[in-house]
Design goal:
single chain
């Protein structure tokens, strides 16, 4: 309608009407563009808010997993230390306690990563939508670090773990897994991750089978050096997690609402 009126007024040389029609036309285009821009900005802001909340939820679970990994490896280290003390002649343990601690020293923890939101943002080029610089930097550090895979791989492929499993009968290993293995827990449960591996337990197998397992382990000349190597690996992992990444640890705890 505006264009038709403008064309008519041009023919009739009605300059006042022409100016008015032109102003209306330009204003309409301008406000149309503004509305379009506002709508686009609202869509982007909504998308950014959704990604931010999803990323926070993922990192809260990652923060729990990070703390769990530290405590779990401390349990491994404590059990390795006990076995080494016995093998060095500095302490005494019953056969059952020795086998349980030797088993727990062979364990490792792998946490399933919660990285779906981060991977989606990276694949779609949306990571810049996260306006919180600390949140974004923490996510990048968390999801690009190879430390967590290295820690679990070192535990899974350790020589000590292989020696243990070659030396202990299936009945004792089954009892260890059932009565003294990892406890099942829901993510974000910070109560059960304390002493999740280093808790009191007993083996429901005949005493002679436990003694046979303990004697088999003690007789392996390569067990002690393999356990010493495992001990050093776990100590290094704890140093990397607990001491050498203080900023990442602090940021994760802040996101999880667990500031010290």
């Amino acid at each position: 309608m505006i264009l038709r009126g403008l064309s008519k007024n041009l023919k009739e040389q009605n300059w006042t009407a022409i100016v008015i029609e032109f102003i209306l036309l330009v204003s309409g285009v301008f406000f149309g563009m503004q509305v379009s821009n506002w709508n686009a900005e609202r869509v982007i802001e909504k998308k950014a808010a959704i990604f931010t909340e999803r990323l926070k939820d993922d990192l809260r679970e990652e923060a729990w997993g990070y703390e769990y990994l530290i405590l779990y490896n401390k349990d491994i280290l404590a059990n390795a230390d006990r076995v080494l003390a016995v093998m060095d002649g500095d302490a005494e343990m019953t056969d059952e306690q020795f086998v349980i601690s030797a088993y727990r020293a062979s364990q490792y923890k792998y946490n399933v990563r919660q990285r779906a939101t981060y991977d989606e943002m990276i694949s779609t080029g949306s990571i810049d939508l996260i306006a919180d610089q600390t949140l974004r930097k923490t996510a990048v550090e968390m999801y690009t670090s190879r430390l967590f895979d290295e820690i679990s791989n070192d535990g899974q492929k350790s020589e000590y773990r292989e020696i243990f499993r070659r030396s202990v009968s299936k009945d004792v290993q089954r009892a260890l897994l059932k009565h003294c293995g990892d406890r099942f827990m829901e993510p974000l449960d910070y109560v059960l991750i304390v002493k999740s591996l280093d808790y009191a337990c007993t083996l429901d197998v005949p005493a002679e089978k436990i003694s046979a397992a303990a004697n088999s382990l003690r007789s392996k000349v390569d067990l002690l050096p393999a356990l010493q190597f495992r001990f050093a690996d776990v100590e290094t992992a704890l140093a990397d997690l607990d001491f050498y990444n203080p900023k990442l640890n602090k940021n994760l705890r802040k996101i999880a609402g667990r500031e010290k």
